[in-house]
Amino acid sequence: MTSLLDSMLWTEHALPASSAHGSVPVKIGEVGSGGPVALITAGIHGDEGPWGAWAIRQLLQSVETSALQGTLRVIPAANPLAMTADLRNAPLDQLDLNRTFPGNEKGSYTERVAHLLAQTALEGVDTVIDLHGGGSWCVNSFVFRMQGGEMLSDCFDAPFSMKAPDRAVSLTGYTRTLGKAVVGVEMGGKSGYERHWAERITKGLHRALAKVGVLSEAGTPAREYETIPVGGSTVLRPTNGGVFVPAVGPDQIGTIVPGGTILGHVYDPGCVELLETLTAPFDQTAILLLRPFITQIEGGAMTYVVAEPQA
């Protein structure tokens, strides 16, 4: 038996980087020919990259080439310099790649990455699946629902789904302007539950690729979880910086808690005085993002993302 991973052909596209690096390769893999074409990306934000790359590998390793009906293209590390630094953005120019599309061939490093993805990776695609996650400091538990890609959103068994912001400069937003079906997945992150979230994403990728005809329906994993739609998200930020101590753990990401539930505390690191308590703001509060570990935190930092469930 031959897996998609065994059959994947890889090409490297060198991008000018720093004087020390010379150039950095962006690696694009492709398997199959003809039929519907789907692109899976991960690592648009570098600190979110490893979880998406792992899920892509699990998919490629677990699916046999005989199941392929179209063409699959993958980019596990779309922003390699940012991933190397474990940062959201590449340190060379600090631009957010997901706010830079369609890029600029003669621009700075991040603008050139966006141009490469827009002109090369998106060529001929019908569907784009963009994997994000909480990264090294938080855990996420939702999927963006975008017009024309609703069926893709439903494939991922995300705890929550939310309407995507209208942002044409993101990868998925730009791809939507081209008339393609897209989905943005925001699941997983560093928490001790990495294997659970990677498996959940892997199964979602399999379902989505079968839904759009890139893979056959045979052997597609059945859905296991309910996805609850939520309204617009609310970001909870501490007024003061200090030592953050969570009151809800990573096992509660993707759950709904009663209003007033204590989510976390912020303490003065000098005299250990309690500075602030963060609580669930809605009668029924869906937890879309949380910080699972004790850490230092600055005033105004994103600490939780919450929303109200919709009937």
Automatic annotation (TrEMBL):
One Pfam family per UniProt: AstE_AspA_cat
Listed cofactors: Zn(2+)
The name this protein goes by in its record: Succinylglutamate desuccinylase/aspartoacylase family protein
Record flagged with keyword Metal-binding: yes
Gene Ontology MF term list: hydrolase activity, acting on ester bonds; metal ion binding
Domain called Succinylglutamate desuccinylase/Aspartoacylase catalytic: residue spans: 35-210
Keyword Zinc: yes
Transmembrane segments: none
Keywords in alphabetical order: Hydrolase, Metal-binding, Zinc
Domain of life: Bacteria
